[in-house]
Amino acid sequence: MDVGEGTAYLTYNGSTGKNCVVTVPDRTGTPTGLGARLRLHRTDTVWKQGVEVDWGGAADSSYTRADYGVHCG
Known about the structure:
This protein is mostly beta strands. It has one domain (6-71). The protein is built from no helices and seven strands. The chain is globular, with a radius of gyration of 13 Å. The two termini are 19 Å apart. The mean pLDDT is 83.
């Protein structure tokens, strides 16, 4: 997903059942503040473990993007 000055990626490892988020900058060789977020999706007061995740990222700005309730696995 586009997060301003970079791109955030959600990955899934089928062998371990684990998700991972990484944010990479659009430009190399330039210092860039990066962020990545990943958590279990929550509906009302219930965490849906192993079913859905919320994820997102940020790159060198206050612009942060997130997707909620994404199913992985």
